[in-house]
Each structure stands twice: as C-alpha cells, then as structure tokens.
Amino acid sequence: MKRIKPSRTNCISRILFRVRVSGESCWPVLVPGKSYWASTLMRIRKGDFIVFRNPVDPEQIFVKKILGMQDEMYEVVSTVSWGLSGADFGMIHKEQVLGRVIIWNTM
After folding, report:
1. Average pLDDT for runs of 10 along the chain of length 107
2. Reported pTM
3. Which conformational region is residue 90 in: left (phi greater than 0), alpha (psi within -120 to 50 degrees), or beta?
4. Cβ proximity of 88 and 98 under 8 Å
C-alpha cells in the first residue's frame, strides 16, 4: 500500500506540493521515505504517477501509476505485484486526483 503525506506550506501549494512516500508499491521508481514533487498543472497521461484519494477510504492518499484512461476515469496499478491497484478499489475519477508526480528518481 502506498500512503503518502502531502506537505502543503504556502499559497503555491495548490499547484505544486511535495509528497513523501511511505509504502513500496511504486518501487523502484518511487522510493519509500523519499519526497517527490507533484503538481495540479500538468496534464495526466498513461504511464504517469498520480496522487489521489482512495475511493474506498478518502482519508488515505495514494500514489499509483496510470495503466489506462477512459473518459474522466483512470485505471491505476502498482509497480510491484503485492501492491494495491485498481483491481482492489476500482477506477479513479479525475475529481479524486490531487496531482501528478512530476519529479522522481530515475534508475
């Protein structure tokens, strides 16, 4: 399970914010314990990592990779076999998306 905590500290935080990854479902691209930048300004495309509220429990915030897109819905997956994915909680509506991860480690 990928839980993250948005760090919002100023007026720009609505369009650019940091997320700290605490799970390993997007490893090795996103590393647990590291922070990454996310934005609401970037167009979301297949293959991107998005920050969103869990549709089953809106108090939880996840980061997952987009596998596919259909109208205003996103199909998301983990990069590891044991992580939660859309198969566990369904498609993500665009209103649940908090932003797109724009800077991450490359290996």
Report:
1. 50 79 90 93 94 92 95 94 88 95 67
2. 0.82
3. left
4. no
